[in-house]
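subagent[fold] <- orchestrator: predict structure for attached chain, return tokens only, no commentary.
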Amino acid sequence: MILYHGSNLIIPRPRLVPQNRYLDFGYGFYTTTNRAQAISFADKVTRRRREGTPSVSIYELEEAAFSTCQVLRFSDADVSWLDYVSDNRSGAYTGPQHDIIFGPVADDDVYTTLTLYTSGVFTKEQTLEALKIKKLFDQLVLATEKSLSYLHFIGSVPQEELL
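subagent[fold] -> orchestrator:
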């Protein structure tokens, strides 16, 4: 499986780095199967950090990872996904640790909907209904050293494609 990681620098040797904020799927190395999404994220990260150059690293994840690692997969932005993302973003998740988590990403547009839900403005049903009309890309998070051992750097997106 080919995966992309957008950042403000190329990352040939991914590692688990503590985050300074709570993310959708918790702690881990975030990737996507969507090249355009990674390019967009690289630009956003570079602007936010005010250093580096938009960069997209390309990796191959060995298929064996899916049979030897603990995998949590969300096919859709459904009730279980909403509960999991809400718990992670609030720092309240206390469930089992997974090596790999795969499912829809809560981008900036989706984040607004999630904020309305977590602040009590939207009910769970209203939130799920609002998410149905949004175009949700995917994210695959490698949350343990075991899962990272199956990830191999194969290059980067050429700079001219990032402009």
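orchestrator: received. Logging for downstream: Residues 2-162 form one domain. The CA atoms of residues 5 and 31 lie 5 Å apart.
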